[in-house]
Design goal:
The protein is of the alpha+beta class and about 140 residues long. It has four helices and six strands.
């Protein structure tokens, strides 16, 4: 079912120059291309991102999985590979992937939660179970 939902978002994203409606109306979205570390299968995952305020080649994504107790599979695929390809707006480009930790992670996540309160809810749901990872994607 999630694959069908994602397929709809992906189609809408590509048909509208990187914009989608519904719950993501107006939100910065991108498509992350990654390879399954176990299956070897290519996947595309739509996700919200936060652009870095100072560096136009740097964006952040959040492995929130809506506050579920486990990280999404794509998180492991990206951190294992250390690289991916993203579709952002009408552009497709390679990125280097690095996890952000400690106070810097907390600062970035807090800013995302300030802009999009759903992320504060996800963090509350995951509290005591896991810290939601933040990944930095830098244009390669």
């Amino acid at each position: 079912m999630a694959d069908d939902w994602n397929a709809g978002i992906i189609s809408e994203f590509r048909a509208n120059d990187g914009r989608v409606g519904g719950p993501f109306e107006g939100a910065p979205m991108l498509l992350v291309h990654h390879r399954g570390r176990k299956s070897g299968r290519e996947s595309v995952t739509p996700t919200m991102y936060l652009a870095d305020d100072r560096d136009p080649d740097l964006i952040y994504i959040f492995a929130s999985k809506a506050g579920a107790p486990t990280n999404p599979d794509w998180y492991y695929n990206l951190t294992d590979a250390g690289q991916a390809t993203v579709e952002r707006g009408t552009e497709t480009y390679p990125v280097a992937v690095a996890e952000v930790t400690g106070p810097e992670r907390d600062r970035i996540y807090a800013e995302q939660a300030r802009r999009y309160p759903g992320f504060a809810e996800y963090e509350e749901k995951a509290r005591g179970i896991r810290t939601i990872p933040v990944l930095a994607l830098r244009r390669a």
